Amino acid sequence: MVARRKVAVVGVALSDCGRVDDATPYALHAQAARRALADAGLDRSLVDGFASAGLGTLAPVEVAEYLGLRPTWVDSTSVGGSTWEVMAAHAADAIAAGHARAVLLVYGSTARADVRAGRRTGTLSFGARGPVQFEVPYGHTLIAKYAMAARRHMIEYGTTIEQLAEVAVQARANAALNPEAMFRTPITVEEVLAGPMIADPFTKLHCCVRSDGGAAVLLVAGEYAGDCRTAPVWVLGSGESVSHAAMSEWPDFTVSPAAVSGRLAFERAGVRPAEIDFAELYDAFTYMTLVTLEDLGFCGKGEGGAFVEKGRLRVEGGELPVNTDGGGLSAQHPGMRGLFLLVEAVRQLRGECGERQVRRGDGSLPRLAVASGTGGWFCSSGTVVLGAG
User: Fold this and answer.
1) How far is Cα 146 from Cα 8, in angstroms, rounded to an integer?
2) In the β-sheet with 278-281, what is the strand arrangement from edge to edge?
3) Which among 304, 292, 317, 295 has a CA at the least distance from the CA of 163?
4) Which residues make Cβ contacts (< 8 Å) with residue 98, sequence separation at least 6?
5) Which residues, including other chains, have CB under 8 Å from residue 118's CB and lie 6 or more apart?
6) pLDDT confidence of residue 1
7) pTM of the model
8) Radius of gyration (Cα) for the chain, nearest Å?
9) I want to staple 376 with a disulfide (CB 3.0 to 4.6 A). Which of 57, 80, 101, 371 is the partner?
C-alpha cells in the first residue's frame, strides 16, 4: 500500500476574464491551463490527472483532448458552483493515495458573450424533469429561490436588507483594489437598495455579474513541490455535502450545506474557524456570503447580519477579509465560479496580490485560508482549507 502523501497547489491562473467576445470556451480552458502550468514551472507531461465540468458532451474527455492530455485519472463531478472545491478534494485524495501525481483542474465559459451573441438566453433553464418538475410550473427562477431563502432569514433572525447590501458594498471595495475586476467603482448601501428589483428582496447589485472567463489549478504530490517555481500551498483538509434538489425538501432555508462541509474540512485540517486569516466564499447573491459565514462558524446562526456590518469583510481594515478579489458580485462570474475562489486563495497565501494583499495583524502574510463553494440553490457545498508553505 502506498503511503498517503502531502498534496500541494503549485500552479494557479485565470484566462482573460470579463468581456471576452473573441474566444471560445475551449480557448479559455487552454489559456488558463497553459498559464497555470507556467505558473508552476512544470511540464504538462507530469500531468496524469484531469478534472473539468460544464463543457462538451463527454467532459472532461473532450477538454483533455483539446489540451493534448491523456490522463489516467479523471473527474467530471458537476454540482454547480461547488464543483471545483469538490473536485479539489477528490484530486487531493487521489494524489495522497498514489493514484495520480499531478491533477489539473480547468474551467472556462463565455456566459456573457453567448448571451450577447444570442447563443443562449440570460435565464438558462435547469430543465423540467426529475424533482424540479414539481416546482417549474410555479415559475420561480434560480434567483427567486435564493431570494426566498434570504427572506426566510430576514423573518427568522431580523436580518435587514441594509445588512445584505453591505456584502455587495464591501465586495466592491475589495474589487476596487483588483485591477482585473470587472466593476471597481465604489458603491453605497443606498445605491444597492435603489437598484432595479430582480427578485424580492434582491435588487440588481445583490446579484452577481455575468462575465466570460476561465481558471485553472494544478495540484501535485508533495515530492514534486520542490521542483516548482512557486511556493507550495498545502491542502490541509476538505469536506463536501449535499442538501436538497427540490426546495420542498430543504429542511431549513437558513442553513446551507456548508454547515456540514465546513465542519468536516476544519476537523480534517485540524484548525478552527477563528484561526483563518481570510475566506473566499461563493457569492452569486449577497445572502450566500452571509449564511455561509454563519455555517462555517465565523459567527453564530442568525448573527450574520450583524457580523457583516462595520467593514469586517474588507481587505483594508477588515477583521475577516472575504472575497478579496471582489468576488462574483464585482470581479467576475462566468458560471461555476468555485475554481476562481481557489485561485485567489492561493495567490493571497503566496503574497502575490499587490494592493489587495491580506496582511495579519503583525503585518505578516496570511497562513490559513478557506475556500467554500456553493452549487445549485444551496443544493451542494464543497469546502477546502489551505495553508501557506
Assistant:
1) 34
2) 73-75, 49-51, 102-109, 213-221, 7-14, 233-242, 380-388, 368-375, 278-281
3) 304
4) 2, 3, 5
5) none
6) 43
7) 0.96
8) 19
9) 80
